[in-house]
Amino acid sequence: MLCSEYRDIDLAFLEKFKQLLLLQFDNPIFGSIPQDHFEKSIAGVLRGWPHHFLNLNTYQSVLFLQDTETDSSVAAMAQILQKQISADAGEPCYISISSPLTGADSIAAAYAQAEKALDDRFFFRNCYVYPIPDKISTSLESYEDDDALLRSAADAIRFKDSYSLQKSVNMLLTKYQHKRNQSHINVSYILSQLATILYSALPADKEDLQVVIERLYFCQYFEESKALILDVTKRVVATLAADTESTGHTIRMLKQFIQNHYGEELSLSRLAKQFYLSPHYLSDLFISETGCGINKYIKTMRMEKAKEQLLNTNEKIQDICKSVGYTNFSYFCRSFRETFGQTPESYRQSAH
């Protein structure tokens, strides 16, 4: 499919790669640190392992690997690479390992899979290499403890994030469903805490909450407790949905904010903080309302603003680059060419 889309470009070199690693930051690190700086660090870690490093945008880069040996060797290398890249950047870098590639046409699916695996960061906040192996995921009870999961549920309600709420609830339920060595009283106590958090999103009814807590303690089987919690969760999700009917207004305000601040650093974390929402929820909400991602929307606006300045001013291209929010000039030129099919300089010349 790639080859058919880009017939004029020789993509044969992509066939030799066997796996890809997605490198991602929460802030636009790849736009503020030269690419060759990362390339040197990567080469130092890989020590002759054939590879190709490609910067996708200011938040993401892809590392293609050739001649991979075993899953464990790739995972071990990724752990070392993550520490090195994070040290270089001064903030955590997340790495997601794709399934083996079967040719150039499998790259898009592998990238999507690697990006999807990073969704679990919300639950494993101190884990930086993904996906989480099943054997690790089921043994992380000491790491993702009860308090952490309960806080995640409370935060999700505060941010009106139904998706994260349901995931936190399901994670806690799954954790205790298979803990046969836990006492009935202890499990009921944890679930009663969860019920109290859930009821914080429902119309005040202390008597109803007390009835639910009593039922939790008297459930004979865990499945009964689980069904009770899921029923309350369903009610909370419906309440949150009603509270977020004004999402269209939120997106309009967000677009206006981007319009007014496109020349500044606009990370997802900053935008989420501005609108008192979780980054994950804001990202999903924007896609749902507009059909495109926030980063793509910001890039499109910046490119249009750059085009306007190229046409209507005599400003230096380097100054235009900075004025529309880019700190890396080469990345700005590459993005402009990808968008309009010409370099900024060629575009200016052809328009006059």
Q: Report the strand count.
A: 5
Please state roughly what percent of the residues sit in beta strands, choosing from under 5%, 5-15%, 15-25%, 25-35%, 35-45% or over 45%.
5-15%
Q: Helix/strand-derived class?
A: alpha+beta
Oligomer: single chain
Order of helices and strands: HEHEEHEHEHHHHHHHHHHHHH
Largest β sheet strand count, sense and barrel closure: 5 strands, mixed
Number of discrete helical segments: 17
Shape estimate: globular
Detail the topology: elements first, then pairings:
Elements: H1 2-5, E1 17-24, H2 35-46, E2 51-55, E3 60-66, H3 71-89, E4 94-97, H4 107-117, E5 129-130, H5 134-137, H6 146-158, H7 162-177, H8 184-199, H9 206-218, H10 222-243, H11 247-261, H12 268-274, H13 279-290, H14 294-312, H15 317-323, H16 329-340, H17 344-351
Parallel strand pairs: 4-5
Antiparallel strand pairs: 1-3, 1-4, 2-3
Helix pairs in contact: 2-3, 6-7, 6-8, 7-10, 8-9, 8-10, 14-17
